[in-house]
Amino acid sequence: MKEKRKYRTIEMLLRIVTAIILIQTLHFKFSGHPQAIHVFSTIGMEPWGRYGIGAIELITGILFFLPNYWKYASVITAGLMIGAIGFHLVTPLGVVVEYDGISDGGQLFAMAITALVFSCILMYRANVKDLVRNLLGQSS
Q1: If you average pLDDT over residues 41-54, what whole number do you get?
Q2: Rounded distance, CA 21 to CA 1, Å?
Q3: Which of 23-27, 51-55, 76-80, 98-102 has the lowest mean pLDDT?
Q4: What is the pTM of this model?
Q5: Which of 107, 126, 117, 114 minimizes the C-alpha distance to 67?
Q6: Could you tell me which residues come within 8 angstroms of residue 121 by beta carbon, excluding any fewer than 6 positions away?
Q7: Angle 81-76-32 (CA atoms, 0-180°, nearest 5)?
Q8: What pLDDT is stored for residue 118 in this prediction?
Q9: To pair with 129 at 20 to 30 A between CA atoms, which of 33, 74, 79, 84?
Q10: How far apart are CA 89 and CA 93, in angstroms?
Q11: Membrane-spanning regions, if any (predicted)?
Q12: Which residues pair with 98 in a beta bridge?
């Protein structure tokens, strides 16, 4: 019984931290902060990508707090973070984002890695294979 409670506590902490990572960047995306504009301009997705991805991250961050939907949020987050990491690695954006002589020290990249790892752990805990079957309407 204690073991099960321990896993649920760890699971909840992973959900909270991942949601915070997603939600804490929304102010920068939606307010038009120069760093957010730089990031999305560099990858060719300004302004529609900034607003679109921000909206998806907002919805996903909320889903992490809903008991029956956090599993879907972990899948969405993994997809978003794979995209973010990919853009950092294959575009001029780079791992360390610099704009107007200011460096983020790799913080955005580190948060994307953290959210990806946590969402993958959560997907494992949610038994993603069954989750995908349910989404596709197939029986086990």
Answers
A1: 97
A2: 31
A3: 98-102
A4: 0.89
A5: 126
A6: 14
A7: 60
A8: 98
A9: 84
A10: 8
A11: 12-28, 48-66, 73-96, 108-126
A12: 103
Which residue carries 């995908």 as its tokens? 132
Domain boundaries defined on the chain: 2-136
Assigned token pair, 2: 């204690």
Tokens describing residue 112: 């994307």
Q: How confident is the model at residue 139 (pLDDT cuts 50, 70, 90)?
A: low
> Hey, which residues does 103 pair with through a beta bridge?
98
The token duo for 57 is 């991250």
Kindly report the CA angle at 109 between 64 and 34, in degrees rounded to 5? 95
Residues, the chain, total? 140
CA distances from 36 to 2, 27, 31, 39, 101 (A): 44, 10, 9, 5, 15
| Residue 140: per-residue pLDDT | 53
Taking the C-alpha atoms of residue 28 and residue 83, their distance in angstroms, rounded to an integer, is 19
Count Cβ atoms below 10 Å from residue 71 Cβ, excluding itself. 19
The whole-number pLDDT of residue 74 equals 95
What is the three-class DSSP state of 98?
Answer: strand
